[in-house]
């Protein structure tokens, strides 16, 4: 990347964070400090919804994927013990098994304490209605706090789902009280997010949340931070960060492949804690983190609890270090740009 473009990218990647107070991430004294389970993690506003969520959200897929029910229960209970009250899931996580685990270990005892999110990858209105009822049944709850149109992959995918009535089902679910808030997610192509936002604006519709990759390498390759985050801020969306460590590749794990990534940013001295702190320094409502053990939950929540802020100079330093590691190999979940 030419130096001029590189500096412009860094400026765009840090611009939104300039509005944040240096202390963002510290305990919030305006929200309840504890509930019947104990002290809460720091909370942040969920966009324009008028509510606050814990800034750490437990990812539902990793808590279930390849783990016994007892292991999933231990991860969920560790998150609750650490003060997490925001829990993520999706119908397509092991074909609903991750939702069933929440219905077994989370909802029956703790529903009134937690903000519960799940997602639907449905391509048609009929599929979306069926998936909503299935999610409610599997998780044993009467309503969702947040339901998101999941994994939009391209502008064409967005157009097809809208044409097939998927958004209409989401809007009706919100009107009926089956869900409190609605949003959309994706990690493949930032152009899909731009198409969704443009379509919504043209029709005078606003959703509540958007979930997308936010990490130190993202600004250097097909960036959601540079291209989408400023628009979400302008429209006061609740911004949910995912892929904070690029599905593990940023710390040398296999990610979506079967071999450890050969050139992770940790080789340049960037620590997992700094990867999380960079995300917390941006205007996100929450960081959705997939944890595979109770120890990982404790580690990740400690980073939030102890976070005191990150200034622009430190963000730029970390972005500079991350630049040479970025690209399709590291963020393989992104669609490569079209040629020609």
Describe it.
- It is built from 14 helices and twelve strands.
- By secondary structure, it is of the alpha/beta class.
- Helix 4 (97-105) packs parallel to helix 6 (125-139) and helix 6 (125-139) crosses helix 8.
Question: What is the topology?
Answer:
Layout: H1 3-15, E1 34-35, E2 38-39, E3 43-45, E4 52-54, E5 56-58, H2 60-64, H3 69-81, E6 86-87, H4 97-105, H5 107-110, E7 115-120, H6 125-139, E8 144-149, H7 155-163, H8 166-176, E9 179-185, H9 190-202, E10 209-213, H10 224-227, H11 229-234, E11 238-242, H12 272-280, E12 286-289, H13 294-305, H14 312-323
Parallel strand pairs: 5-6, 5-12, 6-7, 7-8, 8-9, 9-10, 10-11, 11-12
Antiparallel strand pairs: 1-2, 3-4
Helix pairs in contact: 3-13, 4-6, 6-8, 7-9
Overall pLDDT: 92
What string gives the helices and strands in order? HEEEEEHHEHHEHEHHEHEHHEHEHH
Question: Largest sheet, order of strands side by side?
Answer: 5-6-7-8-9-10-11-12
Helical residue percent band: 25-40%
Q: How large is the count of helical segments? A: 14
């Amino acid at each position: 990347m030419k130096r001029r473009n590189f500096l412009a990218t860094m400026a765009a990647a840090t611009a939104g964070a300039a509005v944040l107070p240096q202390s963002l991430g510290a305990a919030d004294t305006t929200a309840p400090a504890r509930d019947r389970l104990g002290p809460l993690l720091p909370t942040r506003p969920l966009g324009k919804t008028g509510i606050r969520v814990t800034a750490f959200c437990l990812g539902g897929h990793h808590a279930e994927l390849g783990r016994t029910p007892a292991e999933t229960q231990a991860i969920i209970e560790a998150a609750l013990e650490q003060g997490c009250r925001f829990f993520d899931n999706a119908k397509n996580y092991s074909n609903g098994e991750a939702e069933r685990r929440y219905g077994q270990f989370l909802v029956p005892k703790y529903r009134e304490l937690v903000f519960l999110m799940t997602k639907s990858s449905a391509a048609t209105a009929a599929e979306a209605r069926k998936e909503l009822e299935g999610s409610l049944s599997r998780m044993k709850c009467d309503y969702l706090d947040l339901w998101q149109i999941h994994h939009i992959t391209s502008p064409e995918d967005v157009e097809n789902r809208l044409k097939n009535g998927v958004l209409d089902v989401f809007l009706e679910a919100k009107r009926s009280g089956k869900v409190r808030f609605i949003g959309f997610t994706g990690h493949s192509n930032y152009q899909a997010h731009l198409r969704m936002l443009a379509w919504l604006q043209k029709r005078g519709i606003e959703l509540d949340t958007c979930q997308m990759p936010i990490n130190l390498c993202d600004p250097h390759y097909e960036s959601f931070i540079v291209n989408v985050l400023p628009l979400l801020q302008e429209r006061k969306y609740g911004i949910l960060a995912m892929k904070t460590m690029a599905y593990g590749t940023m710390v040398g794990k296999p990610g979506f492949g079967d071999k450890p990534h050969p050139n992770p940013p940790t080789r340049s001295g960037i620590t997992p804690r700094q990867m999380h702190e960079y995300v917390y320094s941006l205007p996100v409502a929450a960081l959705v983190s997939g944890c595979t053990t109770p120890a990982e939950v404790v580690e990740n929540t400690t980073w939030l609890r102890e976070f005191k802020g990150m200034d622009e100079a430190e963000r730029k330093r970390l972005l500079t270090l991350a630049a040479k590691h970025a690209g399709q190999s590291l963020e393989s979940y992104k669609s490569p740009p079209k040629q020609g």
